Amino acid sequence: PETGCLSIVVLGASGDLAKKKTFPALFHLYRQGFLPPDEVHIFGYARSKISDDDLRNRIQSYLVNDKGSSTEQLDDVSNFLQLIQYLSGSYDSEDGFRLLDKEISEHESSKISAEGSSRRLFYLALPPSVYPSVCKMIKTCCMNKSNLGGWTRIIVEKPFGRDLQSAEQLSTQIGELFDEPQIYRIDHYLGKELVQNMLVLRFANRFFLPLWNRDNIDNVQIVFREDFGTEGRGGYFDQYGIIRDIIQNHLLQVLCLVTMEKPISLKPEHIRDEKVKVLESVLPIRDDEVVLGQYEGYREDPTVPDHSNTPTFATIILRINNERWEGVPFILKAGKALNSRKAEIRVQLKDVPGDIFKCKKQGRNEFVIRLQPSEAIYMKLTVKQPGLEMSTVQSELDLSYKQRYQGVTIPEAYERLILDTIKGDQQHFVRRDELKASWEIFTPLLHKIDDGEFKSIPYKPGSRGPAEADELLERAGYVQTHGY
Ligand code: BG6
């Protein structure tokens, strides 16, 4: 393992993402011994003029577990907070970044022994509008010193642009400053346990090999639902909408893992090569295979314009033009303020030919991977109804993680991905060409929406979304199974 000083800089340290996700993820890594205090120092950097203690106080409540914390955990929290130092500065002037470099160097000189190196990780918990200037400042002022060895890596968050052109422009600007192996484009869905499990399920199980194609699979749904609205994020959300917020990144990444061919190996480049191939095989989205919605009350948020048409719900069908998937609809569905919070993949198989049991109406075989909450993998299948009658019933083969892996804590996505960055493993990060291919799929539709060619259909908060989306699902061939 690499030794020496690891400096983690959280830019945008006083913001929401840093507070809710980045610092808690760092804390969990610290508790598990991945951030040894004799090597690691954490810097928070933002514009607000606050003190070290102000930042520590802001973060603290997100580190303490709701159910009441043990003394041991409280000690860990306070020890962890002591590793954090705050610096205030702007995102486009050298002064702040020179000071940051000076502070990092001081820590390095006290911690780096003869064989140790300088490792610098910059987490940009910031809006993408400031990425170019922040990257330039890091490059100018804060790179690891070459005589010490080590590395400098940056983690960037979505949204990477608003469409193909702006994303490419951003990629070019960042690409002029950093090489691809230094850039970690984070999509936190790639850090979720059951998303990571997808390749194992598909490629380590004989069961699925012959089934996973257009001959057997009728349709696939990848669904994200939230039972709350934009909650104070209306200003941000209204500029992006549900397609850019969830579908173009999170759900599309899941789609890649469901549909890609088997990579040559688990090397990040091999996996990402296959993802790009499948993305490039996606056909243009058809207008009649899109339903958009907006929940009633969304525009009451004072930061949302009165006439906003921004979708908070979308169902979109993607079709993949290759030998494995031609003709299979991939239904991507995401919505805010719906009736439940759930993310899942539903793979529905075709009907069994020659239905001697007359059980077709009970439903089809379905394979479901529930990403959250309560991670589970289950198969819906038809069995004989127990008893004297020769009748059938739909039942489930169920692998519920809570029951099967009692006592195992499933790591948070951010925790895993930050650790991967420290290790230099880009397998679960989005490569530049992958990002480009994903914007290529959605940009024509997004432009039409921006030009007012699609209207968002109003739906009631707490509902399933617009009825038109269920109709689209039916048209795509989805058959409601018993109990769903
Ligand atoms: C974020 C979106 O990327 O993902 C949010 O910006 C959304 O709008 C969130 O709420 C959902 O993440 P998770 O992990 O709770 O499904």
Can you give a write-up of this model?
36% of the residues lie in helices and 21% in strands. It is of the alpha/beta class and 484 residues long. The strands form 2 sheets. The chain has a 9-stranded mixed beta sheet with strand order 14-13-12-11-7-10-9-8-15, sandwiched between helices. A 6-stranded parallel beta sheet has the order 3-2-1-4-5-6, with helices on both faces. Helix 1 (16-31) packs across helix 2 and helix 8 (234-259) crosses helix 9. The longest helix is centred in the middle third of the chain and has 26 residues, at 234-259. The mean pLDDT is 94. It binds 6-O-phosphono-beta-D-glucopyranose. 6-O-phosphono-beta-D-glucopyranose (BG6) binds next to loops. 6-O-phosphono-beta-D-glucopyranose is lined by residues 188, 226, 245, 343.
Short summary of the structure?
This protein is α/β, with parallel strands linked by helices and 484 residues long. The protein has helices at residues 16-31, 52-63, 71-82, 94-111, 131-141, 164-175, 193-203, 234-259, 268-280, 401-404, 413-423, 432-450, 467-475; strands spanning 4-11, 40-46, 84-88, 117-124, 150-156, 183-185, 217-225, 290-295, 313-319, 329-335, 342-349, 366-372, 376-384, 392-400, 457-459. The longest helix is centred in the middle third of the chain and has 26 residues, at 234-259.
